[in-house]
What we know:
Layout lengths: L2 H4 L6 H10 L5 H14 L3 H7 L5 H12 L13 H6 L2 H7 L2 E6 L2 E7 L4 H11 L2 E7 L1 H11 L3 H21 L10 H16 L21 H15 L16
Parallel strand pairs: 2-3
Antiparallel strand pairs: 1-2
Amino acid sequence: MSRPVKALEKITSVRLAEILTERAVVASEVLTDALYAQDKHGEPFVQVLVSGGHITEWDLAKVVTENFNLPFLMAGNYQISEDAKKRLPKEVLFKHTMVPLDVFGDILCVAMPVMLTFDEMGKIQKEHGVDLFPYVGLISENKKVLGDMHKDYGAWLEQEQQRHEAELKKRAAKPSKPSGDWMSIFDAGDAAIADGKKAAPERKSSEPTNGGGAPTSDPMSLFDAGDAAIQDAKKRPAPPKPTVPPPPPKK
């Protein structure tokens, strides 16, 4: 399985953060906070940006379609098949704000709430024995269609909003970003990049960089370094104390 999505392995929140930084669309500190919220609290990266007013869902959908070569579709304009409605449990659709569109054998076409990550889609495929073919949709549109499909979606959404607000109050009362936390991975990545700048000999403009790609001093490599560190940390057995190294000492 997973044939349609295998070509979409680059659909990650970190990669989208890189693109938004390159375009100077969203401030880097906002992106870092949104990545943290997703990793620590399970809040969808895209929805954090949109609900926070940092970018409109239309602008974000345009960025995703252009950079990940995905088609765009307004779920309300599609005649949803009855088989598609039954293919996944409504709880899965509610959780991911995802609209099923049509079924072709084992392939289920879905409208995403702008973007679901490759990992999220892979997990759905594995748990429910289906291949997903994603279309870029709008968060607001998907919510409207889900409400029309399932009369209890509104109540579920309200309950989730109350739960989310209660969680935010808890976080505000007890900040969850200690110096040795996940956020220090980005500090470590930034420090590594800075050290690389000091150690690397000066290049001439005509010299190739990273095999013709971006130079090692590219600020985008901060996200790559941070993401790689996160993935490495997740693969290792968790020690009894902090699961990530503390930030490097400041000079």
